[in-house]
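TEACHING EXERCISE
Course module: macromolecular assemblies
Task: Read the component lines below, then compare them to the predicted structure of the full complex.
Student: A.B.
Group: 4
Components provided:
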Amino acid sequence: MQSAEQVLAVLRKRGELWEAAPGLVGMRGDLLALHRALERVIAELARSQAPDEWGVPAALAWDTLKTADYFASFPQWLSAASHLSSDRAVLERVARGDDPRREFVPADAALPPAVCYHTYAALAGRILESPTLMTAQGTCWRHEGERLAALERGWAFTMREVVCLGAGDECEVFRCGGIEQAIALAESLGLDEEVVPATDPFFAPTARGKELLQRIKGLKHELVLPLGPDRGIAAASFNHHETFFGEAFDIRLVDGQPAASACVAFGIERWTLAFLVAHGPDAAHWPAIPHLESATWQP
Amino acid sequence: MQSAEQVLAVLRKRGELWEAAPGLVGMRGDLLALHRALERVIAELARSQAPDEWGVPAALAWDTLKTADYFASFPQWLSAASHLSSDRAVLERVARGDDPRREFVPADAALPPAVCYHTYAALAGRILESPTLMTAQGTCWRHEGERLAALERGWAFTMREVVCLGAGDECEVFRCGGIEQAIALAESLGLDEEVVPATDPFFAPTARGKELLQRIKGLKHELVLPLGPDRGIAAASFNHHETFFGEAFDIRLVDGQPAASACVAFGIERWTLAFLVAHGPDAAHWPAIPHLESATWQP
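Instructor-supplied answer key:
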């Protein structure tokens, strides 16, 4: 097994991996072909649980994250999309050479930190007659400052999620099914996975209690894949939110109770990197994986 | 032929189209299936010209747009990604309830207004031994204020581009080939296309000359598709940049001259909307198109 650093050095040298800025990667050639194949394999897995696929918007309404109490929970990751004022004088100053970075209006939209917020926003105020499942893949954004690292921890990265809303026990059955599927996927790809209890890195001191409850109740697990002989990375997570989002977004069951929710999330770049660490950067040595089309790009 | 407004009303009513905020659309069901099918058809067309596919980063380095003289040319569209300061005091204020929109640091990265800027950035400083072609699909961002309209004019939208760098005549041959391909595509989809000379909407008064030159030299054409009996929308553009980007990014040919460039760009949501206007919102009445899988989502 090579280290992630050795693999990344080879990919950069081959011109298959580059960064526009820290945490913003581009891909070509065999690396891109592998990433796409894993996207497709994981999409099929997701659709087998949730045939209803959504194409989610590129950003979230500001109020969606506010309703989800996101600012109190994870302000450290928050990213936003903004644009210049349409004031002619501002645009003229920018066109003449003023630094546009000083001229953006306060952000209109949040760049999504996870796909599932789109689901709660779209279902807000609804009454669910039966367990509701959806899946989507989207670009998600979490700013992690000095910790950003190519493929391992992106400012922008590719997330596939499956979301279930329904009764609490239905959500738990769904979540456990997701754990089994992800374990089977890792083994089929020749990866040594480990599923461990986990907590979210809540920011606020007042949220410490949430972390403790999450651990005691077993509400979050992560699937960890090796990135070298002595370290690993969480490549999927399995989360039971109880009725937190159902209450926040007023999503109810037919008996009037708030819906529970659970989500299963895959970080595609992390699966890609773990695969490369396990099998090396040369496609000739990779095990067969479905959907891997031979790359046409030559360095 | 229905109007775009009638089609959009049906899609919203079926729950297949929604907006997180103006210009930020989500899709489900038959609409999503159609959009994906068109993505794939157009991707195949692009790969037949440029087998080298890139997975481009989700944002651009600030300097890339500066080098491309973007701020002078199109400040009105400029969008940026930013994050909160990592200062603990700021994060604590936000966690306690302060409006985070006031606390973003000046933007670190630009949200891409077009895919091809990634190409020039990645090839900066290179000498090209032969015509260089690439293709990529990405989410692009252009803020158009009051003009934003679902599927027709998104703040974020899906662009497929094919880019060619080489000698000027090579780029022109590529550009004309792109026009022919796009016309054939429109006809195969049963759409009444029209190819017309066009100019970019340069902002600065000093850039007016560019517009005039663009028109006189025939450097830009657009393929327009009908959105109703009396109006249409540019759904693809075919652009020759002469040596503008080659000079700006120091990309040269073996003889030391700056490379010329051309790009062919498809706006996927616009093709989707024009198809729906031509054939109606009911999948049962659509002509056969490759890759259209029956949607599994039921409203």
